[in-house]
Amino acid sequence: MPFLGKDWRSPGWCWKKTDNGWTRIFRHELENNSIDLEVLCTDGSGDNLFVGDVCELVTTKRQKDFYNNSTKSQFVYRDKWIYVQKGSTKERHGYCTLGEALNQLDFSSAIQDLRRFNYVAKLFQLIAKDQLGSLSGAAQKNYFNILEKIVRKVIEDQYNPRLVKELLQDLSLTLKGLAIHAGRCVLVGNINVWLSRINDIIKWQQQLDNLQIPKHTSSGFSFNDLPLHTQSTIIYKLSDACDVINLGQATPTMQALSENRTLWKKLCYFHFSDKTRCHDLVLTTSDKVDWKLMYFTLKKHYPVREQYGDTLHFCKHCSVLFWKDCGHPCSAMDPSSCLTPISPQHFMQLFQY
Predict the structure, then answer these.
(1) 311 burial via Cβ count (<10 Å: 0-12, 13-18, 19+)
(2) For residue 252, how many C-alpha atoms fall within 13 Å in the half-sphere facing its CB?
(3) Which position has the higher pLDDT, 154 or 195?
(4) How many CA atoms within 13 Å lie on the side-chain side of 148?
C-alpha cells in the first residue's frame, strides 16, 4: 500500500494516482513545479525519451541546476527548527549533519537581528576553523552566501567589525591549509570556484580595513555630558576588555575610568571566577594586584565567558534545535522546562560523530 500521509518520516516523495497506477513524485515538484513532465521528457516527434523514475530524476536535477545557477540565496524552509538525530531508530534512519542545520536554521535572517549577529558570527568562525571541510557542497555555498551578507551588514551599519575581521582571518588560514594539504578531496567543486572565494575574502578584508566610521555631528545630549558616576556605571556594564580599552582612547576622562582597578577586578571575576584554579586568586583582597595585567594573563590560559543577546535553544524532550522566538511543535507538558541555551561551542559538539 503506498504511503499517502505527509508524515515527518517521509523523505520528500509522495504518491499520485494515475490511470496506469500509483506514481511516485517529489512533493516539491507537485506543489511548485511549473515544468510539464510530459513536455520535458519527450522530443519533437512526441516519443517518450524517459520513463518512470528516470523521467522524474531528470526533472528534479534540471530544477536543482536552475535554482543553483539563478540564485545566491538559500532555500527557504517553512520550519525554522531541525531535529538533531545521532542514531537510527524505528521511526528515523540516518543522522543530522552540520550542513543540514546550517541550511535550515535560517542564519541568513538571523544576522539581521543585532541580538543574534555576534552569535552567528562566532558560530561561523568555529566552522571556519574546524568544520569547513565537513560541509556538503550546498552547505559550503550557503556558508559563503551568508558570510557575504555578514560583511555587507558590517560595512553598512559599522557593527562589530573586529569580530568579522577575526572570522575572515581564520577562514583565510583554513582555506590555504586545505588547498595545500588536503586538496580537492575536501574542497568540493571546481578549483576556480574556490579561487574566486579566496579572492572574495581578500576583497572583504580590504573593505573592512578601509572602513571609516563616520563621526556623529549631533548637537544633542552626548555621553560626555553625563555625570561621572553615570559614565562609570555604564563602563562597568561592559564585559569585553577590548571595548573598555577602545573606549578609554576616546577622551582623557574615559582613559582614567578605563584604568580603574575595580573595573578590571570585576572583569576578572566575571570571566574567570568559575575556573577551578582561578577562584581563590580572583577573590583575593590584596591591594597589590595589577588586575588589568591579571586579566590578560588569565586570558592566555583560559577562555573568557561569552555573552549573547539571543541564542539557539535545544529541547531535551523533542531533541529539536531552534530559535526561541520561532518555537517548535513540542509535546511536553511544560516546554519551558526542557529548553537549554546552546552556545556556539555546544552547537559544534552536537554535530560531532
Answers:
(1) buried
(2) 0
(3) 154
(4) 14
Beta strands 320-323 and 312-315, pairing class: antiparallel
Phi first, then psi: what are they for 315, rounded to 5°?
-90, 115
Query: pLDDT exceeding 90 applies to what percent of the chain?
Result: 12
Q: What is the mean pLDDT of residues 102-121?
A: 88
Tell me the pTM: 0.70
Inform me whether the pLDDT recorded for 37 exceeds 70: no
Phi, psi of 322 (to 5 degrees): -160, 165
pLDDT given at position 41: 47
**Does residue 276 carry a pLDDT above 70?**
no
Q: C-alpha dihedral over 83, 85, 88, 90, to 10 degrees?
A: -30
- Residue 347 burial (CB count, 10 A): 22
Crossing angle of the two packed helices 114-126 and 161-177, in degrees rounded to 10: 20
CA pair distance 110, 347, nearest whole angstrom = 16
Q: Is 14 strand, coil or helix?
A: strand
170-209 burial, b for 16+ CB within 10 Å, e for fewer? bbbebbeebbeeeeeeebbeeeeebeebeeebeebbeebe
In the prediction, which pLDDT does 35 show? Answer: 44
All three cell numbers of 299, joined, read: 586570558
SS3 290: coil
What length does the chain have?
A: 353
- When pLDDT is cut at 50, 70 and 90, the band that residue 150 belongs to is very high
CA atoms of 168 and 160, how far apart (whole Å): 13
Q: What are phi and psi of 98, to 5 degrees?
A: -65, -40
Amino acid identity, position 148 = E
First to last CA, the chain: 36
Q: Choose among 329, 259, 269: nearest CA to 78.
A: 329
Dihedral, CA of residue 147, residue 150, residue 151 and residue 153, to nearest 10: 160
For residue 48, the SS3 value is: strand
β-bridge partners, 130: none
